[in-house]
Amino acid sequence: MIHIRPAKMDDLPKLLDFEQGVISAERPFDPFIKEEKVTYYDLKNLIESAESEILVAEIDGKIIGSGYAQIRESKPYWKDNSFVYLGFMYVDPSFRGKGINRKIIEELKNWARSKNIPELRLEVYTKNEAAIRAYEKSGFNDHMLEMRINLND
Prior knowledge:
- By secondary structure, the protein is α+β, with helices and mostly antiparallel strands.
- The chain has 4 helices and 5 strands; from the N terminus they run βααβββαβα.
- It has helices at 12-26, 43-48, 100-114, 129-137, and strands at residues 2-6, 52-59, 62-73, 82-91, 120-121.
- A 5-stranded mixed β-sheet has the order 1-2-3-4-5.
């Protein structure tokens, strides 16, 4: 049985491992990520802040997935003053394909609703087709494509 719960400080070592899993999964899609060990998130702050929520998925007490929601300020020309940004979506490879990511997203949607924030956003690499399909199953649709050019190539 899958159990979704808020992360605790005791979960930090496993969450740090998951962060490296996210980075490893994204490196093939982004040649601009440094080769040495990097970090994306301030996990301690995300756990402690009232403006964010990290959730973990557990099976038999073993953490197998994660995701966070964070309240962010909207651009001044948007209708709403804030939105919820989702990130750190990770499921242990041996548990993928079981709807765990979708369960985490549903709970993060509930958290956003509890904060009276009507919009969720996330970023995903355009070539990461598996992740795109997973987010579409949770109701997301593409909105804007960010483009770039490397002038050193």
